[in-house]
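Quick one, T. Sequence first:
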Amino acid sequence: MKITMDGEYQTRDGEAVRVLAVDIHNEVYPVAAAVIDCDGDEEVHSYTAEGLYYATEGMEEAGLDLEPKQKTVFVNLHENGNAYWYKSASKARDRSWENHIAVAVEVSI
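C-alpha cells:
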C-alpha cells in the first residue's frame, strides 16, 4: 500500500489520521500525517511511503503504522442468499422485510 493524499487512514491502534503531505524531501520518510487523539489534539509524525512509522527492516509493527480506515456498514441478509448493505442501522431496519434471515448486522470493511 502506498499512502496518498486522497486516501483515508487510521493508525494500527485505531486513531484517526489526517495526511498532510506525501512529497516531503526525505528519502526514507516522505509522508507527514497528523494523528488525532481522543481529545481531538493532533501530533505530527513522519512515515515511509508505505505508512510505516519505523523504516528499519526487522522492526516490529508499530501502533502508529498507517492502515486504510475501516468503515462500518449494516447488512440485511435475505433467505435467498442476497445481502444488502446500508450506512446506518436505522436505514437497514427501515428496509427490512419478513424474509430476512438477519437485519442490521454490523460489519467492518
